């Protein structure tokens, strides 16, 4: 840069000196003459437009290895790639040899060749030669190829000398190579190399480069037909000249001459069309962007998506998207924003799903689990309730529509149970979780937290595949960096994904003796004692996602057991509109979405059935990655109650010793194992009022809250309910708390038909002694709803025998058999 400036000044000085000497020799040094010259000079100085070329360019994306991923045609219908960074060395030799042998010596025009051209043209009686230098041709191109007149020629010469003052030779060559026509609508060496040879201009052979070098002068030669012979002659002529000038050797010349001309133009690749559109819609429009995409992987993922969509379309599922990211850098390695259209049918295949907000289904549950662990509110196996719950207006269900009373938090996560997730969010707090999601990088929480409420964890909020994959990558990075940062946290480990390749590594300097620059100092990471989520909770979360791998909503999960250790989570949104799958190893994140871009749900559209197989196919194409290192410094091995998952007490009958996160040491000890008092036989419970203490047995007993117990014992046959009190001992359970009003035992129920010939409903009703208590209703073992204060429910059971079973919050149960006629 500095060199260039000096050169320009020198040239300017020379110029001024020359001007001065001319002035000195003028006999009449009148002020008028000076003024006139000054005006002329000013006119000359400002004659060249500030920017020579203002044409719009194609938006172009390259893969990380500089291969072309795709390009968008410029606004004026030209394949004009953005200005090249460097002129390919072979092209430089070829173009100078062919067009302007004295390019590096002349001041913009070459008087000798101009005179020669004039003589030839006069002899022939027509314009055969132009005698133009590359500089003059560049000016001519920038002036949109005006008519070849004498006047225009003079203008070109003047502007060329001015351009030589402003630009270095190298810059002029760059401008020429970037804007020269190469036949048809191909402009510039880059576009030409991809169009005619399907390769980067730097990778072309001498013969190929020579072919391109003769084109700007006569672009139509590229078209098929007679022209081609002439093109071959010209190319070989140029090759000969290159040989004579010593640029290439004899064997290169001979081999080059044997090379064939390109047949028909290659269509430009479109390997990542949605990423190209994304770049086009960003501030990088009309530029050439080198992305972080791994072109081989991109092609493989494209193929995987296409083959799966072929299968999915039989169930009218037409769209799928996938993203692969490198954990360490957060760089995207593959980006398939949507599947290609099948048989030219339009299923909104141009929509980039990766950046479209979609209902998140269960995909946020691992974040909540990690957050609760991090906050020290649960241990990995802590029991969480799985009993009917009523959210404002609707009651969420597990996929299986059943309840288990209480389940271990890690199993609730790996089986993706909805009800325990709701209870967990209730404990953690909606506002708090909402804030956490925002800090982790979710950009689509457009409404205030209370608008989502507890449904936030069940897909009530929308998320982008891009953001969510970014969160998982950040989690993995946090664990990977834990020991590297000596147990401290770099908050910038949680960052959005990136697709633009950048060579500015701020942590590494090429010359290690150099003092770090100011920028380097500024960017030195600040390490903190606490991460957004610490490494141990994340590690435990990944472990939970690895261990069971058996989501509730899925058959045939065994198919997915691969040789690779992958932590994964699926999600299915309400109404079967979105099927998600995200998998993670210590090196890669793979995120997949399946569904219909227009939002239409399909039965069977689940994350497990549709998205997970794609995710595993992609993992098969990735190198193996070691499992995460356990962050031991942040964990302790402690005894926990194997029944409740809480820290064990002396009453817990069976104990496991497990690794827990350090913050978990403050969790509550097991509240479920309690000491109860039995009579000598062990069959009845007693109190000190009806039994002497010396006759009592004191036994630890695992006691769940009544409603949880009611569901729990159906799934866990080992569960022993509390023994009843010994006759004569105080027992509040003896007095009946609730009873049926309708129907009576073994009643025959008649369901009337209304005037519209529709079956109407019958009101079932019970009474309860305790006001404000909640009663859970079950018909034939299936939960159908809950009541409070007024215990009525309208039902229309089908014909036949039924059992109605009700359980209240205290675990009292009543049942009634009836028959519908
Ligand atoms: Zn216990």
Write out key terms for the chains shown.
821 residues, 28 strands, 5-stranded mixed sheet, alpha+beta, 5-stranded antiparallel sheet, elongated, binds zinc ion
Task: Give an overview of the whole structure.
The protein is α+β, with helices and mostly antiparallel strands and 821 residues long. The protein has 23 helices and 28 strands. The model is unreliable at 504-521 and 551-558 (pLDDT under 50). The protein binds zinc ion.
**Main beta-sheet annotation:** 5 strands, antiparallel
- Using DSSP, what is the number of strands? 28
Low-confidence stretches: 504-521, 551-558
Unique bound compounds: zinc ion
Helix content: 25-40%
Helical run tally: 23
**Order of neighbouring strands in the sheet with most strands:** 7-6-16-15-14
The overall pLDDT average reads 87
The global form is elongated
Task: Summarize the helices and strands and which ones pair or pack.
Blueprint: H1 2-25, H2 31-45, E1 59-62, E2 68-72, E3 79-80, H3 89-99, H4 111-124, H5 134-142, H6 150-166, H7 169-179, E4 186-187, H8 189-197, H9 206-214, H10 226-244, H11 250-258, H12 273-280, E5 288-290, H13 295-312, E6 319-326, E7 332-336, E8 358-359, H14 365-374, E9 383-386, E10 405-408, H15 409-414, H16 418-428, H17 430-440, H18 449-452, E11 462-463, H19 465-481, E12 489-490, H20 518-522, E13 527-528, H21 535-547, E14 567-572, E15 578-584, E16 588-595, H22 607-621, E17 635-641, E18 655-661, E19 673-678, E20 697-702, H23 706-715, E21 738-742, E22 747-749, E23 762-768, E24 774-779, E25 782-788, E26 792-795, E27 800-808, E28 813-820
Parallel strand pairs: 1-5, 3-4, 22-28
Antiparallel strand pairs: 1-2, 6-7, 6-16, 8-11, 9-10, 12-13, 14-15, 15-16, 17-18, 19-20, 21-23, 23-26, 24-25, 24-27, 27-28
The protein binds zinc ion.
Zinc ion (ZN) is lined by residues 641, 643-644, 648, 652, 670, 672-673.
